[in-house]
Every structure is written in structure tokens, then in C-alpha cells.
Amino acid sequence: MPGRIEDYALIGDLATAALVGHDGSIDWLCWPRFDSDAVFAALLGTPEHGRWRIAPDWEGGERPRIRRAYRDGTLVLDTEFRTGSGAVRLTDFMNVRDDGVSNLVRVVTGLRGEVAMRGELVLRFDNGRVIPWVSRLPDGTGIRAVAGPDLVVMRAGVPVRGEDMRSVSRFVVKAGESIPFVLSYGASHLPAPPPQVAEERLAETETGWRQWASRCAEAGPWTEAVRRSVVTLKALTYRPTGGIVAAPTTSLPEKLGGSRNWDYRFCWLRDSTLTLMALLRAGYVEDAAART
Question: For the chain, what is the domain count?
């Protein structure tokens, strides 16, 4: 079962966005744009409709304690898992694409002791309906998945194997170790997206978001809350055109069993106007002007 909508955190690259569950599962991602078909659609169904989960392998044992937060002024999300044997941090982000390639990056870092981890990648194109053809990369660093015009490549710092139409990894993280996972989207008729250095992308992403967030106007005791809000609003903008989506989701009913299942992945006039007003009041005059 998917989590509650309030348990999901948002990450994005100003062209699309992903929703990360409290349990380390990414249950929603439309690629390559906000309005594209989803490759992870577990939010609307089950894990069989696509997800990417990385978390402690606690089945049969004690459930880990979880704490998470965004890094200040950024859209970089840290989730900390604490178990009886140790603690790890899972860092999730999407760097703003500057070369046409969209990357979803996850880094597992050991904080204390050692923790047995399990990764499960379930790629399902066309909103959960299409299982891709999966093969190993020639250099052995990961896998490639193809479905019609779509190509997704995953490069990982640990071995990945196929298991029941899923790509699974089991590994142990010790204190001080850092293990990267990079999922990249591209067109299937073009060469595979190039390898990414997760640490470099993380540094670039943190710097870029913090520089942008630092321009937020002071709002007294509410400054931090306002800054976090404008970062979220910025994440809902489509950089190539300046369009603003109302939300990155679709088909979530206003009421369970109800008929109002709107698609919010478009520029609704009311929502766009409210976003522009918020950006103006927060001091982002140039950003607001670029979207009018």
C-alpha cells in the first residue's frame, strides 16, 4: 500500500518531480516531464506499478527508527534510519538538468556501526502498464531498461541482480562508507546517458538551491517557513517555458471513492496566479516576471 500523501517529500529538477515516502520508497515519478507518463506509479496502486525503495533490510527484525529533513534552503532530502546495529543516511535529490539528461540520485552513507540494506528498483513505463526490457551495461556498472522510446540507466556502487521482474541489491553499509545510486533518463535511440559523479552533483545542487533561497525576503519569525515554501514553489516550475504546475500528481481523489480525480500537472490559471503572487511578495520579482 502507498503511504499517506502527507508522508511524501518532494524532490525535482525543474522539469519533473519525484515523491519520496517516509520509508525510503520513491512511489511517483513522471519522466521526462511533469506531464509525462509515470515510471513509478505505486502512489496510485501497488509496488508492482513501479517504485524505487532503498531502506534497511529489517524484515523479521526490529523496524528502524526514521528521521528526515531537507538540507537548509535546498531540495536535498536526508532520511536517517537507526537500527540496533547502526545508523545510515539516505540522501535523495535531482540535480537541475543542464545537459538535457535527467538524473535521480540516491546516496547511502554509514553514520554508525553497520546496517544491512536492501534496494528494490521496479521500473514500469506507461503509468505502470509496461515492463521494460532490462540488460546489463557493457562496463558492468549497472543496468539499462528500454521500453519503446524510453531509456533508463541505473549505475550503482554495489552489485544489482534481477529478481521477479525487479532489480534488487543487498549490501551492508559501515560507518564512513558512502554508496551512490544514479538513475538517468534518456531516449532509447540515443547513446546511454553518461555516468555521473554523485558527490559533484550533490555539491552543485546544494549550492544552486542555497544561492537561490538566500534571496528570499525577510519575514520576521516566519522567514524559514517562507523560504521553505518558495523552494517548494520553485520546484513546481517547468524551467524550459516558465510554466507552473499546480502539483506533480494526478488521479488522487479529493475524497476516497469520489469522482473528483483531477490532473494537477498542468498550468491552472488560479494556482499559477497564487504562485506568482507568493514569489513577488518573497522578493523574487525577476522569477515572477519570467513566468508571465
Answer: 2
Contact present, 118 and 58 (Cβ < 8 Å): no
Instruction: Indicate whether 233 belongs to any domain.
Output: yes
Asked, for residue 232, whether it belongs to a domain, the answer is: yes
User: Does 265 fall in a domain?
Assistant: yes
219 and 262 co-located in one domain = yes
Q: Tens-digit pLDDT profile for the chain (292 aa)?
A: 678 889 999 999 999 999 999 999 999 999 999 999 999 999 999 999 999 999 999 766 778 999 999 999 999 999 999 999 999 999 999 999 876 789 999 999 999 999 999 999 999 999 999 999 999 988 878 999 999 999 999 999 999 999 999 999 999 999 999 999 999 999 999 998 999 999 999 999 999 999 999 999 999 999 999 999 999 999 999 999 999 999 999 999 888 778 888 899 999 899 999 999 999 999 999 888 876 5
Determine the structural domain holding residue 241 and report its residue range.
215-290
In this prediction the pTM is 0.94
- In this structure, the answer to whether residues 56 and 122 fall within a common structural domain is yes
